[in-house]
Write a structure and sequence with these properties.
The structure is a single chain. The chain has helices at 18-37, 48-72, 81-90, 197-206, 217-227, 258-268, 306-325, 334-344; strands at residues 100-109, 117-119, 124-128, 131-135, 139-141, 147-157, 171-172, 179-184, 231-237, 243-250, 279-283, 286-299, 348-353, 363-378. It is of the alpha+beta class. It has a six-stranded antiparallel β-sheet, with no helix packed on it. α6 (258-268) links the parallel β10 (243-250) and β11 (279-283). The protein is extended, with a radius of gyration of 30 Å.
């Protein structure tokens, strides 16, 4: 794998220390004054000329900050916005646009039909709240059957269409004379906002890995991330000769559903990406559940801000559970929980569960039962 962008050294193209700029201006003025008059002049604090030079030094500083930022935009580590997109063009890596959520719907007929019927593409269903999903393509309901499963896509792009659990999308907006009910049979997912700069930057950095078909681990990772920016973590390994196992985790530690996994498998199996001799298999990481049972204590000096401190500490526990599930193969680490709660303001924390647990490269830790209790105040 190539060097991580975060490991590259920091770069500064021009001096941006205000004191050094001012000192250079003062010494330059004193030297020029001596050359012109033959007299020594010192610009002490309070001298009107020194005050004027100070104002010019601030203007110079502003200009240098802009110049420094402009120069750094030429480097992948610092580039952003349109500049980053222009750098991506060198590697034929476009920024991914926002995408709509998808979900599998079940259309139930009031009775079996004697002839084939059609659910037209564009037929709308909704959970309410002005959110609509449409049938992607014309779907045939064979004669004699009473239901059919149809893939639909949210009209609005972005995350607005995500996380509707089975049965919540149940309003048929465009009536069908032969249809009785409709409902989603899986949780809607796949909706993403336009790709952010950090994710795009990392894909550009991986782009050279994809200049040919996959093969090396980095090349497979490049193509997996190219499939969807919703994918936040990837594990590639080979359990046996000729077999490539791909495990993916989505943003916010979400487990991918079967629809996304099937799409990824189809995408990665394309002959333009997969070496002829590789057999690709795609799956979600194995979920390892753990219980979280903690008691935290605050300092007596924090009594006046008790509610604020308790909210901060309990939020840090939520941050820990998200941190724990956001990377495949991350060990269950209670020390991280201690660090986060102490940093949030807790005096100390008693952790009954979880215990430190080593995970394999295809496992991810997800909290099961969570109990967070306030133990009271203690003196220093």
């Amino acid at each position: 794998m190539s060097l991580n962008l975060k490991d590259l050294p920091e770069v500064t193209f021009v001096e941006t220390d205000a004191n050094k700029i001012l000192n250079d201006m003062i010494s330059g003025y004193e030297a020029a004054y001596f050359q012109q008059t033959g007299k020594i002049k010192k610009l002490y604090p309070g001298d009107p000329i020194r005050i004027f030079l100070y104002s010019q030094a601030l203007r110079e500083l502003q200009l240098r900050v802009i110049l420094n930022d402009t120069a750094k935009q030429n480097l992948l580590k610092y580039a952003r916005g349109e500049v980053l997109q222009n750098l991506g063009a060198f590697f034929r890596t476009d920024k991914l646009a926002a995408e709509s959520a998808r979900v599998l719907m079940k259309f139930n007929l009031s009775a079996a039909r004697p002839t084939n019927e059609i659910i037209p593409s564009g037929t709308r269903v909704s959970p309410g709240n002005e959110i609509y999903f449409t049938v992607i393509e014309d779907t045939v309901i064979p004669a004699g059957v009473t239901f059919v499963e149809v893939l639909t896509q949210c009209v609005q792009t972005g995350t607005i269409g995500n996380d509707f659990t089975p049965g919540q999308i149940n309003i048929l907006v465009d009536p069908l004379p032969y249809n009785a009910t409709v409902e989603n049979i899986e949780t809607s997912s796949g909706g993403i906002e336009a790709e952010n700069d950090d994710n795009y930057r990392n894909r550009i950095h991986l782009a050279p890995e994809g200049f040919s078909t996959a093969g090396p681990e980095g090349a497979y990772e490049y193509f997996v991330r190219q499939f969807s920016p919703l994918i936040s973590d990837v594990k590639i390994f080979s359990p046996s000769d000729g077999v490539v196992d791909i495990r993916v985790l989505l943003q916010n530690g979400e487990i991918p559903n079967q629809t996304l996994l099937d799409g990824l498998l189809s995408y990665m199996s394309d002959k333009s990406r997969r070496p002829l001799t590789d057999k690709v298999q795609v799956g979600a990481p194995e979920i390892i559940q753990y219980d979280l049972d903690v008691v935290y204590y605050l300092r007596s000096s924090d009594i006046s801000v008790e509610q604020d401190m308790r909210a901060r500490v309990e939020h840090s526990v939520d941050e820990y559970t998200m941190w724990q599930r956001s990377k495949i193969g991350r060990d269950i680490n209670p020390s991280e929980l201690t660090a986060k709660t102490i940093l949030a303001g807790a005096k100390r924390i008693e952790i009954s569960s979880p215990n430190h647990t080593v995970l394999s490269d295809i496992q991810v830790a997800v909290v099961n039962i969570k109990s967070v209790s306030f133990g009271g105040f203690e003196d220093e």
